[in-house]
Amino acid sequence: MIQVHWSENAKDDLRMIFDRVKRKTSSEKLAKNVVNEIYSAGISIKFSTQYQIDEILNKPYRRIIVSHYKIIYKAVTKKHIRILEVFDTYQNPIRLRK
C-alpha cells in the first residue's frame, strides 16, 4: 500500500485555499468541501505513476487535477508519495519553478 505524505507547503496551500474560498463565497461549508475534495484526491493515489507527468515540471513530478486545482506530487520510493504543492490553475504556473 502506498503511503501519501503531505509536505508542509502543501498543507499551507490547503489552508490558503480554504481561506480564499471562504472569503470569496462567505461559506465555510463550501470551503471545507473544496479542501476535502482536494485532500481525498491526494490520498486516493494507489500507485506512483497513476496520474500524468506534469507538463511544466516534467519527470519526476506528476499531477492530479481537481476542479481547477492542481496537486503536484512525486514518488519518493515505490511505496511513498510526497504531495508537494496544491495550487489554483488560474494562477501563473511559472511560480512553480521557484
Describe the protein in words.
The chain has 98 residues and is of the alpha+beta class. It has one domain (3-92): RelE-like (YaeB-like fold, 2-Layer Sandwich), CATH 3.30.2310.20. It contains 2 helices and 4 strands, in the order E-H-H-E-E-E. The protein has helices spanning 8-25, 28-43; strands at residues 3-6, 62-66, 69-77, 80-88. It has a 4-stranded mixed β-sheet. Helix 1 runs antiparallel to helix 2 (28-43).
Descriptive labels:
single chain; 98 residues; YaeB-like fold; globular
Give the helix/strand layout.
Blueprint: E1 3-6, H1 8-25, H2 28-43, E2 62-66, E3 69-77, E4 80-88
Parallel strand pairs: 1-4
Antiparallel strand pairs: 2-3, 3-4
Helix pairs in contact: 1-2
How many discrete domains? 1
Report Rg. 13 Å
Distance between the termini: 32 Å
Shape: globular
CATH class: Alpha Beta
Instruction: Assign the CATH topology.
Output: YaeB-like fold
Q: What CATH architecture do you see? A: 2-Layer Sandwich
Q: What sequence of helices (H) and strands (E) makes up the elements?
A: EHHEEE
Mean pLDDT: 91
- The name of the CATH superfamily reads RelE-like
**Portion in helices:** 25-40%
